[in-house]
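The freezer alarm interrupted the setup, so I double-checked each line after restarting. Inputs confirmed:
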Amino acid sequence: MTTISAPAPTRPWKASPKDRLRDVALFLFAIVGTYVVVAVTPMKGKLAYFGLFFIFYMALTAGFQWFTRGSAAAKDAFVNSLVAIGAVVTVIPIASIIVTVVVKGSKGLHMGLLTTDMSMSAPTDPIASGGLLHAITGTLTLVVLALIMSIPIGILTALYLTEIRGSLTRPIQFLVQAMSGVPSIVAGLFILSAVLYPITKGYSGFMGALALTILMIPTVARTSQEVLKLIPNDLREAGVALGGTQWRTVAMIVLPAARSGLITAVILGIARIAGETAPILLLTGGGDRVNPNAFSGSIGSLPYYIWKSFNAGSPEAITRAWAGLLVLMVLVLILFSLARLLGTRKVAR
Amino acid sequence: MSTIAPERAVPTPRELTTEPRFSDKVFRAVVTVGGLSSLIILGLIALFLGYRGFEVLRQEGFKFLTSSDWSISTDDAGNVLESHFGLAAMLVGTILCSIVAVAIALPISVFSALFLNFYAPGWLKKILVTVIDMMAAFPSILFGIWGFLVLMPSVEYWAKLLHHYFGFLPFFKLEPYVVTRSPFVAGVVLAIMIIPIITSVSREIFSQAPLDRIQAAYALGATRWAMIKAVVIPHGKSGVIGGAMLGLGRAMGETVAVYTVLNIVFQVNWQMLLGAGGNVASLIILKFGEASPYEIKALMAAGLILFFLTLIVNALADVIVRATGRSGR
Amino acid sequence: MNDSHESEKENMETTTRPSSLADVANAKVQKAPGTRAMGTGLETRGIHAWFGKNHVLSDINLDFAAGTVTALIGPSGCGKSTFIRTINRMHEFIPGAAMAGEVLLDGRDVYAQGTDVTKIRLQIGMVFQKPNPFPSMTIGENVLSGLKLSQQKVSNKDELLEECLERAGLWNEVKDRLGAHGGSLSGGQQQRLCIARALAVRPQVLLMDEPCSALDPGSTLRIEETIRHLSDTMTIIIVTHNMQQAARVSDYTAFFLSDGGPGQMIEASPTSEIFSRPRDKRTENYVTGRFG
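Predicted 3D structure, all chains:
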C-alpha cells in the first residue's frame, strides 16, 4: 500500500475570515441604523428595536448580495434573515416564560413550602404561612391513579395497532388521533355527566384522575406505537418460530425490548396531564388540606392551587401562584428530561 | 401428437387455517378490547353529553347556535322560570381567537421549521428541537398566567399600533377604545401555545423532502431558497396545512389560557382588538361555579358542540396529513 | 460480477457483437480533442476528498479537453462519484466533507474565495444515478426549471424547450404532452428529461453519475446516443460500472481503484488504448474482468 503524503483537508465553502468580517460589519451597521432611527423617529420600545434591527439587517444583507451576486442571491439572503426571525420569535416566549417563572416564583419559596398545606392560611396571607404540601400530594395522587388506568389501555391500544393489525387498525388509528384532540374541558364535562352526577355525587381525586386518563391514553398509545414499530420484525418471527405463542412472544420478547421506550411514552403522558387545569376545576373540588383518600372528598392539586391563588388577586396570592408555577414547571422539566434521556436509547437491547 | 394432453386439473387451493391456541385467543381478545377503548370513550362522550344536553338543545333548537343570549331566571324555590341559552357570541369568539392564533403561528412555525431543517448547524438544531418540544409539554395554565401578567402589557401596545395603522379594516376597528383582554391578545397567547405543535409537524414533513430532488435543484444552480421553493414547499404544503389544523383544534378547545386572558362578554364581536369576547370552553368554566342544574345541562350541550367542532377539525387534519404521507412515497 | 450480467443484456440489443472492448472503442468515429471553440475545458489538480476523518480520494490529476467524453471506471467505492461531485461542488453538501486541490474551469478555480457556487453549478451540469424530475412540475416546467431556479430570463422559451428536448432525444415522444407531469414518463424518458433539464441552462460541462444504472437496455442505448450527440458541443464526464458503455461512448477513460485506502486514479488514456493495451497490470485485470 503506497503511502501518499496528503495535503491538509480544507473546506473552501466555509466562510473565510473576510466573509466573517463582512457579516460582522453588516450586523454592526444594522445596529447603528436601528439606534439612529429609534432616536429620531417616534418609534420606541423593545419591539421597535427588534423589528427595525431585523428590517435593517435584512435590507443590508439582501442589498449586499444584490450588488455582488444578483437578485437570486438577494432573495436567498432575505429568506435567510426571515427564517432566523422565525426561530428567534419561537424561542423568545420560551425564554421569557422560564425567566419570569424562575424570577417571580423564587420570591414565593420558603422553608415550609413543601411541608405545610393551606388549611390554616388563606391565599392572601403573608407568603411564609402555608405551603404546597396538599397540592403536591394531590397532584401525585391524581397522576398515580391516572397512570394505573391509562398505561394498560394506552399500551393495549398500541399493541392492537402494531401486533394484531386487524381490519380496524386504520379507524382506530384515526380515533386515537381524534381522542388526542378532545379538549380537556370536554373530558371533564364527560366525567361530570357520566360518573360524578349519576354515581358518586361528590368531588374526589378519582373523578379528576378519570378525566386525566382520557387525556393521557392517546399520548401513551401514540408514543408506544412509535416505539413498538421500531422493534424489528425478525425478533417477533424468531419468537413465533421457536414455538412461542403470540402472547408469549409479545410479553417476553417485544415488550421487554421496547421497555425504555414505553417508559418514555408514560413519562410524556405524565408531562401532558400534570399541569392540566380545566377538568381539575370541574371535578376535584380543590381542598386546602392534605387528603389521603382519593375516593372521597375534595383534593388539592398544583394547577388548582395556582388557579385559586391567581384569582385571589392580592400581591401575596399572585406570588403564591408564581411559586406554584415554578414547582409545576420544574416537575414538567424533570419529567421531560427523563423522557429524553430514556428516549435516546429507545431500542437498546 | 396423437395423445390428447391430459386436462390439467387446477388444484383447489388449500385453506391455510391456523387455529390459535387458547392463550392467544385470550390475548387477541384483550388487546382488541383495549384497542377499541378509544372508540368506546369517544362514543360515550358524545352519548352522555348529548343525553344531558338534550333537553336544552330541544328547547332552544337552532337558536342555541345563533343567539347570544345567556340568561336564566328562577323563582325562590329554584324552579326555572325563564331561560335563554345561545352560543353565537362564544362560537364567534372561539373561531376568532383560534384563527388569529393560527394566522400568527403558521408563518412563524414554517420559518422556524425551515430554519431547523435547512439552515441551523447540527448542534443548534439539537438544542432548539429539545427546547421547542419541551415547550409543547408546558401546561396551558403557565401560558395563561404568563400571557396575562407579562405578555398583555406589550401586546396592548402592538394592538394600539395595529388599530392606528390598519383601523380602516373592519376587524381592526376599535369603537369603544378598550384594548386589554381582547380576542387579539388571547389569539397571541394561543399562537405561542401552538407554535411548537405546528413547528414539529412541519419539521417532520420537511425532513422527508426527497434528497435526490434537493440535489437536483442544487445541481441546477439553485440557491437554498430557490431549492426550498421548488422542492420542499410543494412536498410539504399539505402536511403543513394538516399541522395548522391540529394547532387550530388545540386552540379551539383551550380553556384556561383563554379564560385568564379574555374579558368574557356575551356579545357577538368580530373586532379582534376590542376587549370583549370569549370561547365555548371558557364559558363552561365561567358559568360552572354558580350554575343551577338546568344551566349545567346547557353547559353540557355547549361541551357537545365544542366536542364535535374539534372532532371535525382533527378529522380534517388527519385526512390532510395522511394524504401527503401517501403521495410522498 | 455485475458486468457479465450487464453485457448479456447489451448483447440482446446489439446485433453484431464486437470481439472485444477495444474493437468497440475503435468502432466509433474518433475525434481530436479540443478542436472546437468552447473554452479550454476542465482540469483537476491534486484533488483529495475526505468524509470526516475518512480519506476517500487521493491526488487526482485529470484534464478534460473541451468537447470530449471521458468515462470514469472502477469498482464500487473507489471514489469515482465523490470525484465528480467535487467538480461541481456538490461534495460539500455532505456533513463533515472536506477536500484539497483545485478544479480549474477555463483556468479559474471553482473553489476560489468569493466564487458564486450557484454560477459554477450552472456551468457544470449534472445528471444523477436515479432519474429525479421535480414531481410537482410538468414536463415543460421541468426542462425550464433550471432557469427558474437561478432566476434567468429567456425570451424564446418555446424554442429553448424544443431544442433541449430535441438534443436529449425526447422531443418526439413528449411534444404533445408537455403539460403532463414528469412522473408520467417511463424511467428512461425521465432520465432523458433530466438531461434536457440540465441542458437548458447551457452548461459547458455535463457530469453524469451512472446515468443508466437504473434503466433497461433499450433506454440505455438511447441515452448513449444522446451522449454522443451532446459531445459535439460540450465536455462530458460519465461515471459507469459498465465497461461496454465506457467503450461505446467515451474518447478517454480513467481507471480508479481503492486498495483499502483512499481511491486513486491508476491510469487515464484514450479509450481504445486502455482497453487494448493497458499500461498498468491492475487496469488490465479490471478491464479483462479478472476482478471487480
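Quick read of the result. Residues 133-343 of chain A form a domain with the MetI-like fold fold (CATH 1.10.3720.10).
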